[in-house]
Specification:
alpha/beta, about 350 residues, 7-stranded mixed beta sheet, about 35% helix, about 15% strand, elongated, 6-stranded parallel beta sheet
Length: about 350
Amino acid sequence: MKVGSILENQDLEKRIAITPEIIKKYISLGFEICLSKNYGSHLGIDDKEYLDLGAKVLNDENAILTGSDIILQLGILSDDKNSLIKENQNLIGVFNPYENKDKIDNLVKKKVNVFSLEMLPRITRAQSMDILSSQANLAGYKAVIESFANFEKAVPMMMTAAGTIPAAKVLVVGAGVAGLQAIATAKRMGAIVFATDVRTASKEQVESLGGKFLIVEGSENLETEGGYAKEASNEFKKKQEELLAETLKKIDIVICTALIPGKKAPLIIKENMIDNMLSGSVIYDLAAVQGGNTAYTEVDKVIEKNGVKIMGERNILNKLPISASNLYAKNIFNFVDNLFDKEKNQININLEDEIISKTLMK
């Protein structure tokens, strides 16, 4: 059986789905690996490295797409590439089914098996395949690094003969995987860290990392059975706004990570809150591509309002493509390993397996 992968649109995506270190694992399962020419060259990985490990490198991307039993990607392919994929082929990646519904529907109509890994259930057996967690972990780390780079003051407290520089105060909005890594990173770098989340279960995790959890009085735990945040009531939102408005007056750096699967990102930091923030403050909005948690957020732009910088990138992981690719490649291999029946040497779409049924687009 053949596993293939072609380069993503390099303007949007620098990550790759197959790294050299994972090649031997695929080959040990009996797969033949076919990659497009210069597949990893932008990451410093020469084609020869793949060839030496037993992979094939082809000039013709179309031949890879038509000849592979399993196609591994990051994002959804262009319409002309999708048109080449045919019945019973298996396309696996992170396809954002809410934004790409029409493209996915067209593939499903052709009886292509499309698996979108952001739909994985949050169960123990799926942890090794959890691309949302592995990638969000890196995003939370990098958001802090980018924010500190744009903050024009020292972050840790410094005591000198000339006086003391106070530690920067950081607020993390959303204490999921990205938020928790942001808390840990900011704390390690000497900041005083606060965090807020609609899920009260996050309090213990935040405090274990040295952060202070800001809790809305009388709040309920807004968490789905799958472990994601759900939309808050209007009353909760009002109380949260009041708490945030007061807190933001003394905050230097804000990291926004709040997302609701399948919906526009909740607008949490309003215009009037930004108006009262300290001049020189920085907001990094990881939810920018889904509308943003912050007023004024624009994708791939730094907006300045009343001396406050508001940042948000389409894909922050393009700044950590090697680390992100290494983790993604392991996640996706583990998914393929679960999908593959080794005894029969074929793909087994077992719909009684929650991992498969939840990720298969219908």
